[in-house]
């Protein structure tokens, strides 16, 4: 029997931030399972069978309002990186959302360690699936392209790869392609300035998801340099395409790539990232090991798996309410 589901998230319609992209994808996944799904930025009081709140702190008002209106109906809270690695365990609004939820959705298994012990039994991991392009792009021959994807926000440490590229030897063919919108004027100025100062760097701004995937598919490497991540979708995209990954050693990245991945650098360590870039370009064995991680984790992001996991989760809640 179809459920009436409302997904509440903090990102406005038309936004291409990670939260909105996640909410829209979940709407499509749950719709493919036969459910009736709406995405909103607040709980509007309409009669629904299930609420999914994306972001424990920012959607806390919606969580409380739904629970007050429907004390026995199922409520799922999906946790972001800022929930797990900044707001918990001290933010009262986030903690209240955890207490009121019937289930908590995580995007990678390492997130359980950031939860209060009493909340861990509620947690379920659902990996964000990826539909890869039907045709694989051929890497350019005149450069070793490195892709960096994400809006230009300080939490992403967006220019770390560009700074590392400045320190590469003259013999290197590495070229950094940065994709993502500048959410603040100072970030756009920084990107423009970097292009002028750094011949290895190009910022192409915000792109559609299809164009982003096509550009990633022709790259030889992806770098994710964030300070915190809940479980970045770009990791799944790169893995699905077989693109090797270099990543900051933060919990959200380790939760997806695994503790033995050879491509970690400490957050903010420009020289360590430079050394990994050099190794990826010049050492075939190291590059092969990076690619093996992507190949190993790629099955986690299959659409059929995400549909199956959501179907299983909803079935466990059908008896409630």
Helix/strand-derived class? Answer: alpha/beta
CATH architecture descriptor text of the largest domain: 3-Layer(aba) Sandwich
**CATH homologous superfamily annotation of the largest domain:** Glycogen Phosphorylase B
* Fraction in helix: 25-40%
Listing every helix as H and every strand as E from the N terminus to the C terminus, the arrangement reads EHEEHEHHEEEHEHEHEHEHEHHH
Rounded Rg: 20 Å
Shape summary: elongated
Arithmetic mean of pLDDT: 94
Strand order, largest beta sheet: 2-1-3-4-5-6
CATH class of the largest domain: Alpha Beta
* Number of DSSP helical runs: 12
Total strands: the figure is: 12
Can you tell me the CATH topology of the largest domain? Rossmann fold
Main sheet makeup: 6 strands, parallel
Task: Describe what you observe in this structure.
This protein is an alpha/beta fold and 321 residues long. The protein has two domains: 141 residues, Rossmann fold (3-Layer(aba) Sandwich), CATH 3.40.50.2000; 158 residues, Glycogen Phosphorylase B (Rossmann fold, 3-Layer(aba) Sandwich), CATH 3.40.50. The protein is 40% helix and 16% strand. It contains twelve helices and twelve strands. The strands form two sheets. A six-stranded parallel β-sheet has the order 2-1-3-4-5-6, sandwiched between helices. Helix 5 links the parallel strand 7 and strand 8. The mean pLDDT is 94.
């Amino acid at each position: 029997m179809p459920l009436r589901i409302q997904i509440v998230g903090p990102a406005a319609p038309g936004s291409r931030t990670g939260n909105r992209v996640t909410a829209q994808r979940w709407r499509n996944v749950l719709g493919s399972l036969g459910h009736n799904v709406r995405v909103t930025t607040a709980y509007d009081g309409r009669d629904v069978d299930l609420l999914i709140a994306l972001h424990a702190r920012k959607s806390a008002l919606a969580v409380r309002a739904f629970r007050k209106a429907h004390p026995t109906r199922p409520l799922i809270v999906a946790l972001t990186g800022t929930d797990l690695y900044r707001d918990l365990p001290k933010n009262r609004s986030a903690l209240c959302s955890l207490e009121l939820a019937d289930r908590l959705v995580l995007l990678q298994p390492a997130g359980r360690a950031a939860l209060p012990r009493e909340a861990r039994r509620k947690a379920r991991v659902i990996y964000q699936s990826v539909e890869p392009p039907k045709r694989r792009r051929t890497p350019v021959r005149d450069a070793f392209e490195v892709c960096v994807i994400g809006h230009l926000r300080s939490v992403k440490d967006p220019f770390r790869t560009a700074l590392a590229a400045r320190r590469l030897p003259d013999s290197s063919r590495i070229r950094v392609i940065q994709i993502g919108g500048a959410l603040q004027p100072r970030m756009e100025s920084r990107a423009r300035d970097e292009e002028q100062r750094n011949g290895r760097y190009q910022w192409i701004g915000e792109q559609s998801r299809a164009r982003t995937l096509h550009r990633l598919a022709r790259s030889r490497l992806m770098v994710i340099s964030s300070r915190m991540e809940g479980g970045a979708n770009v990791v799944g995209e790169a893995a699905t395409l077989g693109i090797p990954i270099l990543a900051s050693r933060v919990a959200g990245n380790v939760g997806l790539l695994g503790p033995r991945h050879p491509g970690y650098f400490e957050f903010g360590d420009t020289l360590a990232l430079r050394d990994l870039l050099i190794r990826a370009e010049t050492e075939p064995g190291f590059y092969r090991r990076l690619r093996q991680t992507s190949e190993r984790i790629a099955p986690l992001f299959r659409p059929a798996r995400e549909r199956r996991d959501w179907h299983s989760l909803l079935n466990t809640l059908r008896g409630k309410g």
